[in-house]
Amino acid sequence: MHANKQAQAMLQQTTEQLLSKTLLEVLPSFQESGLLDKCTRAVETGETFSETLYYGYDHRPDWYQLVAVKLEDGLVVTFIDINEHKLTALALEQANTDLRQEIATRKEAERVARQEKELKDSIIEHATDGISAFDKEGAYTAWNKMLEQFTGIKSEDVIGRKFREVFPTLAQSELARRLTEP
Known about the structure:
The chain is α+β, with helices and mostly antiparallel strands and 182 residues long. The protein contains 9 helices and 5 strands.
């Protein structure tokens, strides 16, 4: 067996230690992992075998691109260390899964909020009393049909406007002061 410096480092053996050894002597887990059968098929058929795999055996558990090519009566096996690339890809995949979950959670929260708003709007609209509501800036956010009947002012003419805009004649009244004070 011949190995370059990267292979020597990966296998934790020198070229002298690797010479004349078989693949199974250097990487005994090739049998257990099923890679020996795939390499044998490459020798028998002459077809190149290539696979991205997590090789968690022997000397260094990492992600590799393994390529096995028949060469005369033997086999050339190359391992390309793709661990950093693969770990980055897996981290991105996990981040995408997390984002999809967050999107689903937000969509569900939006659906629930929409249902709650529809229920609130229905209660306000069908109440037998006049009901209005204001946001924190003092603009109307609700004006039901009963108020339309009492005042003669349509909700579309009120929503988004402030009390003083809707009732300018009451702008200096005690009611206006109470509605607009913090």
